[in-house]
Amino acid sequence: MDVGASMTVKQLARSLGQPPTRPYWHIKVLEAAKLIRVASARLVSGIQESQYQVAQLALRPSRDLVVEPGNASEVAKAFAAALDDFLGRLINDILSGRRGHEPAAATDAELPGPMMMVVDKVVSRERAAEFRARLDALMEEFNRPDPGAEADVPVNFLMMFWSPRDP
């Protein structure tokens, strides 16, 4: 589902190839966790039909979940699923020609072009902690709504940071 899009439970079930009654429990769990929200509701034949949309734009696994040794397999699967989803969308955008292009100059009105960095580096604990704090602040800033501006530029952003430790 696109971030701004909304769907009914029946539409979601259809898109997943599931019976229409199957996702209701899951929807309630996601709503209670504030991961989705009701975007609109209407009466259809006397029954309230709700349209749901994404409410949480960024997910950050808790430290307890990630460091607990018994969770390693499930945490790895969750990260793999997120990476697979992101990779699939990236490949689809590239193959369909929807990937942004780098502007000729910084003042060009074109959408910002793609950017990719892969870095493996050894730094001090202090520098790693300071850099992580700056990344946290940047993500907080990025996830705030644009006050007074019309949101019209779709942005796909994946950020990962970790420090491997000896077992």
Description:
- The chain has a domain at 9-54.
- With 167 residues, the chain is an alpha+beta fold.
- 39% of the residues lie in helices and 10% in strands.
- 2% of the residues are buried.
- The chain has a two-stranded antiparallel sheet with strand order 1-2.
- The model has no long low-confidence stretch (mean pLDDT 81).
- A hairpin with a 2-residue loop joins strand 1 and strand 2 (47-54).
- It has helices at residues 9-16, 24-32, 63-67, 72-95, 125-143, and strands at 36-44, 47-54.
Structural class: alpha+beta
Q: Which H/E pattern describes the elements? A: HHEEHHH
**What's the number of helices?**
5
Which range does the strand content fall in? 5-15%
**What is the spatial order of strands in the main beta sheet?**
1-2
Shape descriptor reads globular
Low-confidence spans: pLDDT under 50, at least 5 residues? none
Number of strands: 2
Q: What is the average per-residue confidence, as pLDDT, rounded to a whole number? A: 81
Terminal residue distance: 38 Å
Radius of gyration from the CA trace?
Answer: 20 Å
Work out the helicity level.
25-40%
Summarize the main sheet.
Answer: 2 strands, antiparallel
